[in-house]
Amino acid sequence: xxxxxxxxxxxxxxxxxxxxxxxxxxxxxxxxxxxxxxxxxxxxxxxxxxxxxxxxxxxxxxxxxxxxxxxxxxxxxxxxxxxxxxxxxxxxxxxxxxxxxxxxxxxxxxxxxxxxxxxxxxxxxxxxxxxxxxxxxxxxxxxxxxxxxxxxxxxxxxxxxxxxxxxxxxxxxxxxxxxxxxxxxxxxxxxxxxxxxxxxxxxxxxxxxxxxxxxxxxxxxxxxxxxxxxxxxxxxxxxxxxxxxxxxxxxxxxxxxxxxxxxxxxxxxxxxxxxxxxxxxxxxxxxxxxxxxxxxxxxxxxxxx
Length: 305
Known about the structure:
Elements: E1 2-3, E2 7-8, H1 11-26, E3 30-32, H2 35-41, E4 45-47, E5 51-55, H3 65-85, H4 87-93, E6 99-105, H5 113-129, E7 133-142, H6 148-156, H7 171-180, H8 182-192, H9 196-199, H10 202-229, H11 231-254, H12 258-276, H13 282-298
């Protein structure tokens, strides 16, 4: 399932990320339950003061709201049943501490009915094993937004890398977007058609135009994610881009061609890797380098006069 902070993650990847987040928040008080037991008990881990945790990321990338709700609802039902069945074994793990809350941690949810389902399951738990849980026991729905501080800490500590959003647009989607961003497309096309290698070949010119436009649109998705989830890192990337932009503008004044453009992109990517390779995965940095070229071409810094 797609996450805002780490792009597309498998169920196992999400579990690994969650365990790091739990360790960051609860320190040594958080204990992982080995998978061969956790799968049977309906918990990923626990704390000694009575918090239980379960992580869940559905396999597919795109869901309707109804489908996502049904998957998450059924997972909660299944694991709460395991919790009820194995409560005595779970109590052995956390020194017979009564259970305070059960945390269901998923990348996102978008249906209020999931809250209602949790309230029903809380009543079932109180009826079935009320002597082993607190009177105010709750099923807590949590997403990555519940752990923003921990995500920032782990990224800055270089324990986790920021992943690409992996957002990719089809040709039809690009055509549709270009209708609202027509000025950008026209600027890119106007500059590219000054090149001898492109101006005589309309088909190739169109392909290059939409390739650069793709770099721009998909790169903007990456920047939006960074600005929202990692504002400090976004500011650092922006400062680097602005400093390189001045050099690019000077090179453009002396005249550049497609080979020069490729060299500028590689040099910028190298600068990105020097400063951010420990905290950003390489595909994200590649997308940012491509976005910069497209952005500079859509504005003023790069021209082929």
